[in-house]
Amino acid sequence: MSSKFPKKEKLKSESLIREIFKEGKSISSYPLKLIYLEIKVPVKTKIQCGVTVPKRNFKSAVKRNRIKRLLRESYRLNKEQIFNNIEGSFAFLFLYLGKEMPQYEEVEMNMRVILQKFLKKVPDEKTIK
């Protein structure tokens, strides 16, 4: 599995992002929150991922962009945990909820925790249906 983050894996569809906020389920590991939604329409990849940082907490675009880069990098390095262990296609949206600039180690640790929680939660939901 390649540890790249190609364009086809990026979540860019405005309608899908709206749908994630409306119908998605969430998992938190402060200061990160993952909102995910299973995609019914066939896509080229198993997961499409997006990141966001609220302007309310970080007025400076430079700080928001730095946090988004940290989130994307930690996802890119840890995504093989998910790609090898799920069935179906999902849309992910990572939100940064903290109010101070994070260190990379903190972001990566929370990213691992949140992805592990996702892997535990998804099979349980499939058996309930």
Short characterization:
The chain has 129 residues and is of the alpha+beta class.
Task: Label the CATH architecture.
Answer: 2-Layer Sandwich
Number of DSSP strand runs: 4
Point out poorly predicted stretches: none
Query: And the CATH topology?
Result: Ribosomal Protein S5, domain 2
- Average pLDDT reading: 90
Count of domain modules: 1
Proportion in helices: 40-55%
Gyration radius from CA atoms, angstroms: 14 Å
State the CATH class. Answer: Alpha Beta
Broad shape: globular
Number of helices: 4
Strand content: 15-25%
SSE series: HEEEHHEH
Question: What gap, in angstroms, lies between the N and C termini?
Answer: 30 Å
What does this structure look like?
The chain has 129 residues and is an alpha+beta fold. The chain has one domain (7-128): Ribosomal Protein S5, domain 2. It is built from four helices and four strands, in the order H-E-E-E-H-H-E-H. Strands 1-2-4-3 form a four-stranded mixed β-sheet, with helices on both faces. The longest helix is centred in the last third of the chain and has 25 residues, at 104-128. It starts with 13 loop residues before the first helix and ends with a helix. 22% of the residues are buried.
